[in-house]
Amino acid sequence: MTRLTEDTAPARVSRARTLVVPTVSAANVPQLAVDLLLHTHGVTRVACVVDPAVLPAVGADALGTGAHSLSTACELFCDDGDVAVLQLRAPLVPGTGPAFVRRVHAWARRFLNGGHGACVVWLHSSHAEEVGGGGPLQPHLGPTGADIEYALARSEPSVGLAAALGRLGWSAVPTDDPRREAGHVVHGVLDAAADSTDDALEVVVLSSTVAEWSAVQDGATLATALTTLLAELAAADGAGGGPAGAARKTALNDWRQPPSWTGLLL
């Protein structure tokens, strides 16, 4: 058990350069995508996290690893590569979102990559009517075939991040998009990041539009987009031997469905 405010963190976290955090948003697609990533690549749970912003919850083992019998509201996972994951399985206490985001960013800045610069990738899912103010959905298709957009906390991201996003061909969330309005999850992440981000921390939000009729397709699409970005970031960082572990790009057909996906609509 650990807290984001503690003075220590699991040792392997210091080797990670990127932290992935799902928001609780449309159809829980970010949580589904993260479970897919964790299960397929066998990423290890290194701590259960307790935070005053996260509502308590407990449930069956979501990943079927056999190493533990329960899943909790907030868990930290890390492999031996470049990626750490903070999986959220419960919503936040209303009004605590900005403070929670600031704690996550402060923790990442302090412990990831030995405190020498890191990136936090937040995952978000939007209903179709949120995009374009309720008008017709205008997909922005990249190499994954996904309707993926991104938003950055800094107007001038690092050369590596800018190059990675440029190669992927995704569009930025427009400045007049409803997702940037006060009270929205994406706005909350970016607003809190603006208060706490410096040159040592990159913050990016990946936003996926939910198709409504297929949680399986939506989750796999977002997971594939995530690993595509992680592989690009690892390559930009000059990771020896190429991207490893959860940072390996994973195609749509290569995912292994975890127990948490049981019963999802196809």
TrEMBL record:
GO BP annotations, alphabetical order: proteasome assembly
Species name: Diacronema lutheri
Annotated keywords: Chaperone
Keyword Glycoprotein attributed: no
Family: Belongs to the PSMG2 family.
UniProt name for this protein: Proteasome assembly chaperone 2
One GO CC term, this protein: nucleus
InterPro entries referenced in this protein's UniProt entry, alphabetically: Proteasome_assmbl_chaperone_2 (IPR019151), Proteasome_assmbl_chp_2_euk (IPR016562), PSMG2_sf (IPR038389)
